[in-house]
Amino acid sequence: MACAYALNYPLLKIAFAMEPPLVVLFYRVLFALVSSLPFLLLNIRKFPVGRTDNLLVLSVSMLNIVGFMGLWFLGESMVSANLSSILVYTYPLFNVLLSMVFINENPGKRTIVGMIIGFAGVVMVASTNIYVNGYLGIILLISSAVSWAGGTVLFKKKTPHIDVRAINVLQYAYSLPVILVLALMFGNFPFSGLTPEFLGVGFYLGLVGTYIPYLIYLMLFRNYSVSRISPYFFVIPAISIGFSSVLLGETISLLTAVGFAVISVGVFLSNR
């Protein structure tokens, strides 16, 4: 899961050079939905039929997909990818905080210290080549992290009786029309100027970068506490830097290497 999410970052840099952020998001979610069609067709009986359950899944999709990814994509277009990694991966901190408030989880002092150390490692890893084009991007990225954490806690607290695979399919189905409307509102046209290269990147982002890791993500949070899983998300920016060095020729500085080690210590302490 972490490797699949991490590879999204360098590929998003490539995709953003081809199309606007909301168009990229539209195709990411579209291909995630297409990838889920076999499950949709073979397991239709597992889908929620009640109004309340569908409203819950709709709310999860608005937080996990539209809120998180939409705000993230727009925010990353205004700041550097490295700063984006730092701000989006405040997510584990918000995740544990919201779980303490709304699910009454008690992560323990060691976990909290480990998470602070892990986030410090993320800052070290992504501290080079940071630029900001105004403060709106920062606000959007922090808001995306809060939205993702809110979706996780809502999923954890309110949907234990709904099949995880059904939620994973429906969150794409419910969010796709909203993303299309937002893309059109911002003057982006998802059906024009597309290239085979962009569609290839979009298909990867949808299948390997979204559908598969999100399914693993939901299964993990269904079976383990929020504070047990959240620290592992700090490794994603670190792995992403590694992929970027291979695919985009970006260099890994000494500070980045030290940050990798700090993240490892933080994750280790969080799960002692």
The H-and-E topology, N to C, reads as HHHHHHHHHHHHH
Outline: globular
Approximate helicity band? over 70%
Structural class call reads: mainly alpha
The CA-CA distance between the termini, in Å, is 21 Å
How many structural units, i.e. domains? 1
Q: How many whole angstroms does the radius of gyration measure?
A: 18 Å
Major sheet details = none
Strand content: under 5%
How many strands appear in the DSSP assignment?
Answer: 0
DSSP helical segment count: 13
Give me a quick take on this structure.
It is built from 13 helices and no strands.
Descriptive tags:
mainly alpha; 13 helices; 76% helix; 272 residues; single chain
Write up what this structure looks like.
The protein has 272 residues and is mainly alpha-helical. The two termini are 21 Å apart. The chain has one domain. Helix 2 (21-35) runs antiparallel to helix 9 (164-185), helix 4 runs antiparallel to helix 8 (136-158) and helix 5 runs antiparallel to helix 7 (109-125). The protein has helices at 2-16, 21-35, 37-42, 51-76, 81-88, 91-102, 109-125, 136-158, 164-185, 196-223, 226-229, 235-247, 254-270. The mean pLDDT is 83. The protein contains 13 helices and no strands. 76% of the residues lie in helices and 0% in strands.
